[in-house]
Design brief:
single chain, little secondary structure
Length: 263
Amino acid sequence: MKATMIRHRCFRLAASPPLVLCFWLFGYAAWAQTAGDFLAGNSKSCRSCALERAALKRRDLSEADLSGANLEGAVLHRARLMRVKLTGAKLTDANLNKSDLKNASLAQAKLERAMLYEADLSAADLSGADLTEAKMQKARLVRAKLDGAHMPEAILTGARLDEASLRGANLSAANLVEATLRRANLEGANLNNAGLVDAVLREANLKGANLSEADLFGADLSGANLAGADLSEARLSRAILTGAVLDGANLKGALMPDGSVHD
């Protein structure tokens, strides 16, 4: 039933339980109409809409407002999502492979197990987002904001995170093999048991970070700030530490670049 038709019929009723039901139906019809308009391409605003498993492949949704929307399992492969508002949205298991999310707002979004292969998230805001087990191979996250993001076991092989902010982020057991994090801010981040083989962390800020049991084989840490970092039991074989700051770092049991085990 059309929202306008329900509204007209509602106002002909006196204040009563049927009136309450009538306005509930009006709200439901208006919500359904909004979601329908969005899926039909007639609107770019669908806040808090139910769009589970929506087929949005290659859609141009630049600057759309999908704050709080449920896009669980949605297909957004190669979609254009520049400056889109997805604050607090649910994108669990969504397919965002090769999508363009430059300058997008994804703060506090739920992205568990989401697929973001080769997605461009340059300068996107993902602060506080849940990216547990997200698949982000070769994703571009240059200057992205990931402060406080929850990213355990995320796959970021070959990803570009140059100048990204990951202060206090949880990257425990994340796969960052061959990722680039030049001048990235990882102060206080949790990288326990993370895979950073051949990663580039030149001039990165890792002050107070937890890198215990991390695999940094062949990693480039030239000029990195590791003051107060926990590197206990980490593997630093063939790592480059030229100019790195290690004041107060915990290196107990770490396998050093020269093959020795630190006391």
